[in-house]
Amino acid sequence: MVTDKQKRKVAVKGGIYKLATSPGEKDYLIGSKCTSCGAHFYPKRAVCVYCYGQDLEEVPLSDRGKLWSYTIARQTYPGTLLTPPFVVANVELPERVYVTSLLTGVDFRDVRIGMDVELYFFKVTEDEEREVFAFAFRPSSGQK
Amino acid sequence: MKKPVAILGVGMTKFGRITGRSNTEMALVAGTNALKDAAVSPGDIEIAFCTHCNQGVANGLRVFNALGISGIPITNLELACASESRGVFLAAELISAGAYDMAMVLGVEKMPRGMVPTGGDVSEAGYEARMGLTMMPGAYAARVNRHMYLYGTKREHLAKVAVKEHRNGSLNPNATYRDTYTLEEVLNSRMIADPLTLYMCSANADGATATILCSVEKARQYTTKPVLLVGWAAASPVYSKDEPGLSDSPVDLLGKKVYEMSGAGPEDVDVAQCHDAFSPGEIFVLEDLGFCPVGEGGPFVWEGNTEIDGNIPMNTDGGLVSCGHPIGATGGRMIAELVWQLKGQAGQRQVKNSKMAMLHNEGAGGANVMMFKA
Fold first, then answer.
1. Domain that holds residue B110
2. Of A97, A142, B66, B141, whose CB is crowded by the most CB atoms within 10 A?
3. Does A69 contact B132 at a Cβ distance shorter than 8 Å?
């Protein structure tokens, strides 16, 4: 009998974020850092657009940022995992990258550009063998 | 300095969902209209571009052959919503450099129903697409919200543009959507992605457009007063350290290049076309091209400056919002309207004494800016 504990924890798509596989590990968003000029990118990439360096290392990105902008999606394409309406946020992380993400935990009318937000991961769907995890941001709990 | 190029003829079909009208039939109408307008024979065209996004491999061969054109270099070109103006940009570069004397650019699109995905099947797509975060006009709406936050732009300003587009479209027999709406009706129409409502958004339509360009010397064989393309510039989106992520194409830089190339400034422009896939686009472009200071686009349109009788009439044919958006054929519609304005052939939409006309056409992957002169 397969219980929830035995299901594999997988991402919606590989290469965007890393899910913890053992206790003590954290889930994180995957970015690239150019070892030549220090620029960060999300999602990860192979060539730096500023200095054309090809030595980019995979790094975990910050899990807190600010809301750069947003909209409220009222319709989506067929086959998507989220059901409208929901907030689509553009979150700016301290590394100067921006992440397009679902934003939860706040009434649509209370969303404000500039608000502090924090990253979290949640189960978005599952099947018999796997639990599929996605990420989202929510208003920061206020602690740094 | 690059030599200017002549626009010898333009042509287009009515835009809209007209059942039973094939891609080739539309191309035949637009192409024939352009050839007649130019008074050239299909055999005079030396190089051709077919601009489209969804019409399939070898579409250029099909549509140009239907017009009787064969043998010459025919190339399919895609740059999303900016495909056709990019085709004209490249044709202009070739003619200006003396490589060819006469070119034809034909845009045609028979659109699918429903929302346009930004690439491929959802199940094959990236994380954001699979989640549903990439819906259009989501990214655009976020940009509008940022503009409202930075500059105090109001929803009424966005809606005012849409009111104008729809009113202009009611004067344009080729537009898909010819109903007019009040400001309240625009604001209260169905919300698509806050703050963009239905009547602020362009919708899919089928259509075809064509432009014939030639060298200025060649043009004199056909007309004593050719419309000239005197400035052109193109770019792709850039990475900027000032703003996180991939910014849009640097329209302000393209504007500066075109002003320099054409020897004109914003004050010299009599009529213009900009890419209003969503009505706030007009506000951004007015600022980028220097028609008003950055941040003041909202009040600028609110005061009626972009009406047909305003200081800088914009999208006199109703723009994308009212004409509809057959993706690969939109650039040619813009060019046709500007040429008609410069030749005094714009009927009820005519802007008096039009001598200089400016174009901005933008899509996923790039933007093109041009200046035309009567």
1. 5-114+202-373
2. B141
3. no
